[in-house]
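ping. complex inputs:
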Amino acid sequence: MTADWERVGSAFFNPVAIEAIAPRLLHAAGNTVVYTAAAFAVGLALGLVLALMKLSTVRVYRVIATGYIEFFRGIPALLVVIAFGYGVPAAFDIRFDSIILQIAIALGVVSAAYIAETLRAGIQAVPKGQVEAARSLGMSATATLARVVVPQAFRIVLPPLTNEAVLLLKDSSLVFVLGLTPDTFELTRLGRGALSQAGGGLTSILAVGVMYLLITIPLSSLTRWLERTTGYKGHV
Amino acid sequence: MSTSTPGPVVEIAGLHKSFGEREVLRGIDLTVRQGEVVCIIGASGSGKSTLLRCINLLEQPTAGTIHVLGTEVTDRDVDIDRVRTHVGMVFQQFNLFPHRSVLENCTLAQRQVLHRSKAEAEAVAMKNLEHVGLADRANSAPGQLSGGQQQRVAIARALSMDPALMLFDEPTSALDPELVGEVLAVMRTLAEEGMTMLVVTHEMIFAREVGDRVIFLDDGVVLEEGPPDQVLGAPREERTQAFLRRVLDPTHIDPT
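pong. complex structure:
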């Protein structure tokens, strides 16, 4: 079978379709990044609290954290986004003033479940001697955690945390169910919307895919850079 | 709580410690007076480290009382963080904070616990780094230092809190043989300056030359105690003699 290169070209690399979508690509990419970053911030903060609860000596905290993690890891993120789009505002009479906040919370609560487990593993990977050294200097349990354990754990979990960020970036495509306006389109919504236009076949999807890669690949470099720079290097 | 506490620095009475079923300490009585250097020797598993770690409550005693600088640390309501600021501890594995510079290792607790200003904490840290001969490595990362240097930093870190008592838990056991000397030299200086020290060690020469008193721990009890010359030179107990033979002449161990 020989490919019909002309048809492949018009289906994936249609210049008319690219022209039609190009002006809005950057804006949508920006939205994708903002949604992801906001959700990640929520996920990280909530995830840290859950991780500490899971490591707590208080049984109730551990039970709550475990329940939360199992629940939100076990259901599709799409369901949670739908719930935050319709169920939660109706049930609790909350109106999200900003779509970013709504997205950040919807995706953040899911992400927190994964991040919590990652952080817990990182905290447990810090040698016990570090805690003993800090405590024997008279530092409180809280100060030891904040100044000695978490900074070291953070460095250990940077690579898996990048994974979470990448997964979250892709999950940001789920927010279409919240009913975005063209101004708040993220990449996937933009690409899908442009599918039917201009007869460009899958060109818009391809363009959007490239945009995702343009975000995720630098993210990996950023992680490597952070790994190199966050530990104390010192000068000889 | 001050360094001029009239009573003993450490007073242990009837100390027991069990890990699950296993009783590691079986009734220890021990008093350490100000300025004294007490070396604790004994076979591995005899409870030496556990005894030391009970003093600053890194291990919670099962029974008995421990007074440190006049405060009962075995009291349920003790403010242990406060007691610990007066008790320096040096670990076998150094346990320096790898994400902080040498200087920051020595200033972190000063700032956090004693609420000293940055300038004051750094001045104290530098004084103590100088004391252990590592002032020029203040900006290095712990990982860039040799084991002996790391342990000296750990000593400087503990000293930066101005402790009244120093606990050493096998401070040279993780070191290459050629690095042991520099750490023992620092400890000797410290002892000569009058620091009250409790040292768990296998360095018999150090115990003999620097120690005021040697305690031989065997199976969770103090089997023999006295001046170094007596305990190490002319031990009364048969088990002390056997232990010293194994340590001092390891190539002639009687396999039984």
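The first helix of chain A runs from residue 5 to 12.
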